[in-house]
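Why do we care about 3D structure at all? Because function follows from shape, and shape follows, mostly, from sequence. That is the central idea of this module. The next example makes it concrete: a single protein chain, its amino acid sequence, and then its structure expressed as tokens.
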Amino acid sequence: MSSTRSSDEAFVREALRVYRRYVVELVEAYDLCPWAAPARREGHVTERVILAEIAGDPRKSLEQIAALASTPKIEVALFIYPDLSLDRLSFERFVRTLRERDAERHEPGEIPFALAAFHPDAPVELEDAERLIPYLRRTPDPTIQLVRMSVLDRVRGKHPEGTAFIDVEAVFSPSMLAPSRPSLRQKIAQDNLETLLKVGSATLDAVVADIRRDRDESYARLRSDPAPVSRPL
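And the structure:
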């Protein structure tokens, strides 16, 4: 095994480890998404760490989307980018570019996944439940959540059956339901705001800060450790 490949595999392992801390210790622990834990247990979720992606030409990400499109059991995918150094707005532009490039490959109505951006940096805004969403999406690394369109179609038609980790912009817009009824997206956002007001932003900040510290220290060790030398047996 080459030293480069060994180093990449170590970064992949650590990126997955710290991401899973975010899922278990924040999303699932505070019930920020009611489907997260069941979806993970039932095997409907996959995580992919993508290294050395080019922000202006996301070929690796497009290849991963194409591969996942033919795996119907996977309803939700997380693309994790531990070495993509983009601030939150730049990362959102990257996600928009990826979304547009993927759409170009499909006929209208046949795009396989909806995409949403998650990023480590977001301020807390308690005035409005919707504006709180980026704050709760503070993954250790820039991350894209992909949700299969067929799952969203199912949700649009009725309350979701089974499980799906769904939290995508505009999926549960008010236009999808009667004006007098809050959308499921709005209900989840409001529940999360109430949770945050109950436990306090300092509590969630402490969890996120510890995961971020863990991530930074782990990545620093990987960058400073000499690469192992492959020796013939």
